[in-house]
User: Fold this.
Amino acid sequence: MTLTAPESWHASLHRLQRDGIPHVLATQVTSAGSTPREPGARMVITIDAIFDTLGGGTFEWQTISAARNLLQQQRYGLHLEAFSLGGRSGQCCGGFVNILLEVFPGAEAHVAIFGAGHVGREIVNLSAPLPWQLHWYDSRSDIFSEQLQQQPRLGCHTLGDPQRTVSELPPQTHALVLTHSHDQDYALIAGLIERDDVASIGLIGSDSKWSSFQGRLKRAGHDAEKIKRVRSPIGRIHATKLNNKTPYAIALTVVTELLWLTDTPSLPETRGLAPDAARALVDDTKTTQS
Assistant:
């Protein structure tokens, strides 16, 4: 079913890019003769909805069909469609239009970032060009600036009850825990390890912090195998410590680690492993199957 929504093309474009939903921006770039709309007219198309209009009629439905075919075939990027309104589209206008279709992919991975401090901000900034849908949480409701909230594929949320927030995350989310509060960190980790469908769990901090958390989790009755799913400290590439502890440097290692994790096939056995260990297991599996 196609839903024609009252939302304008620019409002829908902002929302769809923010939420990481696949969509097409259709723009009338040239025209000749009599046409329903002028160059510069735009509409946005998803698999099940359309926003705004290029003037209606057969040619618009042909534009929608072409856009949805590109979405289904995952042919992202720029595509130019030509319409003769008296020929291809059978309309009485008799004009001619060129429509530019810009096909945007949806998010390839979901990443939940708990904490909007210095490291969290750098992680979000470094992740901006990547095809990830970011879910950013902090208990301080005024910490997200208006500029930050304009970033594509980014949702900013006030962190309330950690258990409820964790329960509402999309399946296969990669979670990073780095709030300003150790109690919040612990509550989030305790909830995350009980979700079998979380793709990965990372915790910022020292070895001693993680050792303390492990003791608390065991005393609280959490299963040892579930506790092992947590990577801490996050961003420790190839099991080595980073001497540069600036927020930007830490964020670089965390995003690099996430690139490996999101690129690794989702074998259940790789959950919770360090990136190099996960990839080694995948390579071993491929060798065994070949």
